[in-house]
Amino acid sequence: MTEPVVLEPAEVWAYLVGRELLPADASGVVREVGDGNMNRVFVAIPDDSAIAGLAVKQAPPWIQKLGPSAPMSPERALIEARALRRFAEYAPRQTPRVLDVDPPRFAFTMEDLSDLTVLRTALNDGAGLGRTSAEVGELVGRVTFATSVAGATPQARAALLADSVNPLLAEVTLQYLLGDPFTTAEHNHHHPALNTALQKLRSDPAVRTELATLRADFGGNAQALVHGDLHSGSVMVGVRKGEPVVRVIDPEFAMVGPIGLDLGLYLANVVIAAVRAYAQGDAERGNDHVLSIADCWDSFCAAWREGWPGRVDPLLDDGWLLRHLRGVWHDTLGYAAVELVRRVAGYSHASDLETLPDPGPASAVVLGLGHKLLVDREICGSRPDPRALAHLVSTSWEAQQ
Ligand SMILES: Nc1ncnc2c1ncn2[C@@H]1O[C@H](COP(=O)(O)OP(=O)(O)OP(=O)(O)O)[C@@H](O)[C@H]1O
Ligand SMILES: [Mg+2]
């Protein structure tokens, strides 16, 4: 493999003209906007507002934040572009449009979203969720139905599986989400207020078994195409012409895997945002956040029900659908639980909590919720009941006060 040429901001405009994505005589500005850890993202904004802005994402052959001493295959940019194109087939409203893919450079160009804000930032700044959870639920529902045994023929699924292998990123998830936070791994860190609770969690045999079950599910349950990293840093939100706009970005972890992974990661981060609001004394906003868990779940189920009459396998009956959705809910709670633990005890914490004057009390509630949910998912009822989860979150906060 030849080394890809790493783009620098000064080269991006000429690069886009060279790819015939901008007119040769256009002028404008380029900004590096990537605040992520892994890759580089640049936006190019033409002076002429009639020409649409563009965003270029490039994966260097290492982890961007750490540099050449931390090599990582740049293939991830191509995996991401391919996933975005598939997502756009089934959920075009919530997916940024990919305009060009450049395999030798491990780069792709998409529509510019710089008028939108990353959801985590918006929530930290006091925004509400509005329609966001419903839009995310719909995207996950539409993409997973279309790529499941109900929506895709065995031939189409075999091709999808072959096209979606993502072993490196799966390893990252196994380590940083489903591994390290449950051990005393080197890069973990936590607030001292969590010492005792964390020791309890890490020595709880029930936690070990549930974690093992999730690890096995993650590696073996090829249900549908999933985003793989669907937290509130992978959603951008804003308003255009008075209408809410929601876009899901950054599916570089995409793979064929358990559907509950996407719903669980998203919902855990909604819970974290709610706990932040409670910690700030804004119970009303916290309650609104947790109530949106139901918007997400209901839209997810609605998308499955919408696709259901057109299912490719007529021997899948309504009883199976019910059982399947229950299973997805159960998995969702499990993946939400590990995400809650990871964001207060793993390597990559949530700025929602870290930027509170004292992250201790809120982090303790998040850890307690993660532990409870992981070992006793029936605590939210034996049937999918997103309102019971919302209730559990708000009462956990109150109980700690
Ligand atoms: N199409 C776009 N238009 C404008 N800005 C964008 C676009 N895509 C991404 N960004 C900005 O760049 C940032 C980084 O993007 P992204 O999360 O895709 O990169 P990443 O390096 O994979 O991040 P991470 O390390 O979190 O995985 C986003 O948080 C957002 O602010
Ligand atoms: Mg990323």
TrEMBL record:
Keyword set, alphabetical order: ATP-binding, Kinase, Nucleotide-binding, Transferase
Keyword ATP-binding: yes
EC number(s) given by UniProt: 2.7.1.100
One MF annotation (Gene Ontology) recorded for this entry: kinase activity
Pfam families: APH
Domain Aminoglycoside phosphotransferase: 32-281
Quaternary context: Homodimer.
Family indicated by similarity: Belongs to the methylthioribose kinase family.
The protein, known as: S-methyl-5-thioribose kinase
Gene name for this UniProt entry: mtnK_1
